[in-house]
Fold this protein.
Amino acid sequence: MLDLKIQYHPERFLYTNIDYWWILPKRNEIKHLFAGNRLGRITNEGLLSVETYEGNKNIELAVPDDFSIFACLLTGNDYYKYQYTDNIRKPMCKNPFGHISLSDKGRYVRGFIELFSSLYHVGKFVSNHYWRTLVERLCKRNIEEVYQKLKPIKNKLNKVLPQLLKDFAIEPKSATEYLAKYILNQARSQNVITAETKFDYLFKEFCLERKKFASNEERNKGFDRGEDKNRQDLLNSLSELTEMSVFFQGIKPRCKNCGSSFWYSAEEIKSTIVCRGCKSLIDLPVESEWNYRLNDLVTNAVSYHGVLPVIWTLGHLLSYDFSCCESFIYVPSVSLYENYASKKPLAEIDFVCIIDGKFVIGEVKTNVDEFSSIEINKIINVSKNILPNEVIIAAFYGENVKLDKIAKNLSMHLDPLGISVKSITPPPYVFEPEYHICI
Ligand SMILES: [Zn+2]
């Protein structure tokens, strides 16, 4: 037998001098993906080990894509399909998952990450207090604003619900009609989100960020907070982000004829442009103010799929323990189906990854309060069927103590199966103003 240490996609980690390897979970079904029918196994160290034959020194290997690895781990082969059950008279049950696919949310997470040079860089962007809060605000995901918006809706529901519940029993049709109309009206009153902002606003907010940063006496020394320095640093970071297409640069002049303001990208700008509304010519002022528009992919990902916490967690897992990590392979947000033909997923997982050979599944919430008992039961059920080495639960906002308590509860169920449980919340600096904003 020959143990092989295979390097993992060096092109994905050009920014660091750390090498990553295919260190794999000790699940022999993965062996087939690399070595086909050749006899082999995964060693205790997570290395692929294959049999060598006398007279033939060539070993043919395939390098599978990350998704195939996780498809194999999550669905298992026939042997692994027989797993845990609560019913002792039926000691083995079938792993109910026969097919996986990237969920809609997963596609958005992947698209968002691909805009940046790497997971490390997108993690830095999401951890940065200035950029994250700006994106949250532009995408109407700012936590205080969301709570402000929920308040009147909750009040209204509290008022009408008792009657509505009675109506549901007697006249379900008209009660449903009422509720449907109410939801539609609420949806109408929410503006369609086009996340754009003027340079002036970005600059004002950035100066404020640095002012807050320097409110700590110690930090006031040695950090230049002059207007020119602030402007230059912001422009540098913005040019980085426009190069990655996270933001687009443009202008938004007002048409004198019809009064509308449309957005024109930097590439479209000439000395005169045609109004998108009335088609008359607009003369541009010599110095039009730059307007920055967030890439629609980012806006949709953040506004409608709430991807920031998942991206933060993945970035954190990659960079938190850089030096100890020899393998880091991940896929965001997968849906698990009974089989290829099933339309409705049986379960969803926010991310799956392999860290130093450990097979990890993770559930991420924006706020710790979203971990309801129904959610916890779902995690327990999925874990019992998949048998990962570790389950990670993460919450971006909320009290650490609460999440630790949830992790302890989960642990009681999963520890007997040899599954460890870990909880992750952002360290305090993620919520504090920062001086540096370059990614
Ligand atoms: Zn016009």
